[in-house]
Amino acid sequence: MANSSHPNQHPPCFSCRVLLLIDVQVNMLSEKKGVPSSQSVRQNIQRILEHARSAKPPPRIIHVRSCGGPSDPDAPNTPGWQLVFSPLPHEHVIDKRKNDAFADTKLGELIPIDAEVIVVGMQSEYCVTATCKSALERGNVVILIKGAHATYDCVEIWNGGKITKAHDIEADVEAKLEDAGANFLEMNYVSKLFEDR
After folding, report:
1. Ranges for the Isochorismatase-like domain (predicted)?
2. For the whole model, what pTM was predicted?
3. Residue 18 neighbours by CB distance under 10 Å
4. First-to-last C-alpha distance (Å) of the chain
């Protein structure tokens, strides 16, 4: 397991906020093979990242990167594995092989248990859900932004090939995570997201 997190550069988390970008990778956001809402989600995540980078004080920014197997679209060092937004030198990159970004990684060392964790990325029902649940169990305040997490349509082979649309899966995830204790905000709140409140 490779974990690149700039070990000699751990600036204090002055704002006690963390922006966690989960699997914001080329394979997930490409026009042809990405999630159905790839273009709008990409724009929304970019907007959130820009606000985070310009905030005073800034949150700690952590990019989580999925590392698939040799034949997977996110196999390490393939085009699909690359991060969509290049991390700045003081930002952190965590490579993971499980849905839960805390599992077998150093993510827990980078996120204080009293930090507010703002989560964006893919896929809603897998890595986003698993990581949010772990953060909640640790005691973190978790905030997700509607329109900044996404997934694919799901073909239920065991149910006659019924297709569950991505937006329905995303809405179901939001309801379940809200029940678990997560908070949700709309994109129109993003400009104030990293301010004192």
Report:
1. 18-153
2. 0.91
3. 23
4. 38
Judge contact between 103 and 96, C-beta under 8 A.
yes
Hey, which CATH number is domain 16-192, 3.40.30.10, 3.20.20.80, 1.10.10.60, 3.40.50.850? Answer: 3.40.50.850
Buried b (16+ CB within 10 A) or exposed e, 97-131: ebbbbbeebbbeebbbeebbbbbbbbbbbbbbbbb
Active site (catalytic) residues:
127
Locate the domains of the chain by residue range: 16-192
DSSP string spanning 1-12?
------TT----
For the stretch 53-93, pLDDT in tens is: 999 999 999 999 999 999 999 999 999 999 999 999 999 99
Judge contact between 105 and 1, C-beta under 8 A: yes
8 Å CB contact between 113 and 15 = no
